[in-house]
Amino acid sequence: MHSPSAGRQADTFPVTDDRSALDAVARRLTCPHCGAAPLQRDARSLRCPRGHSFDIARQGYVSLLSGRRRHRGDDAAMVAAREAVLGGGHYQPLRSTITALVAEHSPPTTRLVVDLAGGTGHYLSPILDALPASWGLTVDLSAAALRRASRTHRLAAAVAADVWEPLPLAGRTAGVVLSVFGPRNTTEIDRILTADGIVTLATAGPEHLWELRDRLGMIGVDPRKADRLRRAFAGFSPIAGETVRWRLAVKHDEARALVAMGPGAHHLDLGQRDQAIDALPGLTGITAEIDVAVLRRHR
Ligand SMILES: C[S@@+](CC[C@H](N)C(=O)[O-])C[C@H]1O[C@@H](n2cnc3c(N)ncnc32)[C@H](O)[C@@H]1O
Ligand SMILES: [Zn+2]
User: Fold this and answer.
1) Ligand 1 atom nearest residue 178's Cα
2) Phi, psi of 243 (to 5 degrees)
3) Ligand number with the minimum distance to the CA of 49
4) Which H or E element spans position 8?
5) What is the mean pLDDT of residues 4-13?
6) What is the number of the ligand 1 atom nearest to the C-alpha of 162?
7) Has residue 142 been placed in a domain?
8) Residue 248: inside a domain, yes or no?
């Protein structure tokens, strides 16, 4: 478990006082153009030692994207839908499970928790309450998500970066990496984790939202996913894990939001979606099934 006072002496990373999270996290960020570090904050930007400068958005996040954008993050409608579902407490069982597992297994030296493809920071925020000696960083591509993520917690900062590219973070810097329903780049996760760091993965299980998927013809969960994940994290061993299963009780507008926040949202015919949802009972039970795994490097 964490001992904030012991941790505070052990590391030059600033202790958690009321300075802005971005000031603190900037010390662990690297320049996406030249790789130099650390970034220093001035009034409106972060600067690298060689003079590259990155504006801080009014909402508090910083874009550290370099070059051409090959991927797009979620658009505003998807983020609003996810916020409605998560804000309605429908994924609370998953949120508490992730928080508890991270609190139990994170190394006591953790000073930074990085939430990759972290969206609005929904899963990062309670972890920062549980590990008060740590700062948090959400990495995502979606401006709509980052606007919220930068305000999710006073200890959390947010940057725009593509998880498929080298991350603008120093090596061996994150005691905890979260990857909840997002694309994952194992090479970069391995590079940024501290020697005893943990990565916490959450992935949809085979029955996740099956009632909606069946009715709407949405893409299912790839049955080889667990194998692929094991191979991708070959240098790691699972140290804890749980399948979290519960039933969501949703009304029509919430069912629409569940579909709109999902990976297949772009490919769906909205008329067809609404017709299928209108045919459901006023309150419908939908299965949620999510595999959570905590991994650490082989020792
Ligand atoms: C299914 S959402 C999950 C968000 C968050 N982890 C949660 O569970 O609430 C996937 C997220 O990945 C982001 N994303 C997609 N491709 C990305 C990429 N290449 N780099 C960074 N973020 C990406 C999207 O913008 C979106 O916020
Ligand atoms: Zn630079």
Assistant:
1) 6
2) -100, 120
3) 2
4) helix 4-10
5) 42
6) 20
7) yes
8) yes
